[in-house]
Amino acid sequence: MSRIVLGVEYAGDAFEGWQTQPHGRTVQDVVTAAVSSVAGQGVDLVCAGRTDTGVHATTQIVHFDAPVERPRSAWVRGTNSHLPASVAIRWAHEVDTSFHARFSATARHYRYLLYNAPVRPALLSGRVGWFHLPLDEDRVRAAADRLAGTHDFSAFRAAACQAKSPVRTIRHARVTRHGPYWLFDFCADAFLHHMIRNLVGALVYVGKGKHPPEWMDMLLTGRDRSKAAPTFAPDGLYLCGVEYPDRWSLPDGGRIICPPELPMVFPCSAPESRSVD
């Protein structure tokens, strides 16, 4: 029995999250069924990180123990032939059984895409977040700078979060703007339930002038979720990849930093762009 790792891309607005549910309308349900069809029998999938309803992924990492031998092309093209258009297997890679999609990971990358304009988007509905009031770029970047490092993120975790500890280490929190499109990039060892959506909500509050950038410090030290901003919509959130030690030789290390097909990443006109680590 060999262990197979898959890179999975999906549009989360078509599903009710990653984790399997009795109703079967989750990403895990459809991918499990498709892989099982290629294997000729049932398989169990393990993912790097569960995504919520409406959250997308350019590279979710999953593994399963294959009960039969198949060429990599079968695990990719064969599985894709059984999947809806909103899900695709990007690649397949064989590893030994000591690999674990969740526990072998060293970092996760997420990007939140925000459309900041008076009128909500139509063509990108469900694929970007939206906020109607102007945001101050310098204030947002100054607030994001305060997030890097190891902190107790209790003020940014959901009440239903099952993590044993609220302490996480953020490697970077970058803010880049392309005209009306804002890109919030986060990399950390792991994230709490709703953590990124809660962070984006707080950054938007700072950007619209409700609080100064120093408010982020107060939230981190206060550890009180009720004092922070509301949870932002899932529409613009993307799992953009997971990092693993080089010894696994996963394609791109399992990591793709941005959603490459979305038009705001490559705007038609020269962008006004500033970013900071």
Helix content: 10-25%
Secondary-structure arrangement, i.e. CATH architecture of the largest domain: 2-Layer Sandwich
What number of domains?
2
CATH topology of the largest domain: Alpha-Beta Plaits
Average pLDDT for all residues: 91
Give helix and strand order, one letter per element, not per position: EHEEHEEEHEEEHHE
Number of helices: 5
GO molecular function: RNA binding; tRNA pseudouridine(38-40) synthase activity
Domain Pseudouridine synthase I TruA alpha/beta: 9-103, 143-245
Active site: 52
Pfam families: PseudoU_synth_1
Question: How are the elements arranged and paired?
Answer:
Layout: E1 2-10, H1 27-39, E2 46-47, E3 56-66, H2 72-80, E4 87-95, E5 107-116, E6 129-131, H3 137-145, E7 149-152, E8 167-178, E9 181-188, H4 195-207, H5 215-222, E10 237-243
Parallel strand pairs: 3-10, 5-6
Antiparallel strand pairs: 1-3, 1-4, 2-3, 5-9, 5-10, 7-8, 8-9
Q: Could you please describe the fold and organization of this structure?
A:
It is a single chain. The chain is an alpha+beta fold and 277 residues long. The chain has 2 domains: 2-104, Pseudouridine synthase I, catalytic domain, N-terminal subdomain (Alpha-Beta Plaits, 2-Layer Sandwich); 107-240, Pseudouridine synthase I, catalytic domain, C-terminal subdomain (Alpha-Beta Plaits, 2-Layer Sandwich). Helices cover 19% and strands 27% of the residues. It is built from 5 helices and 10 strands. The chain has helices spanning 27-39, 72-80, 137-145, 195-207, 215-222, and strands spanning 2-10, 46-47, 56-66, 87-95, 107-116, 129-131, 149-152, 167-178, 181-188, 237-243. Strands 1, 2, 3, 4, 5, 6, 7, 8, 9 and 10 form a 10-stranded mixed beta sheet that branches. β2 and β3 (56-66) form a beta hairpin. α1 crosses α2 (72-80) and α3 (137-145) packs across α4 (195-207). The chain is globular. Residues 263-277 have low confidence and may be disordered.
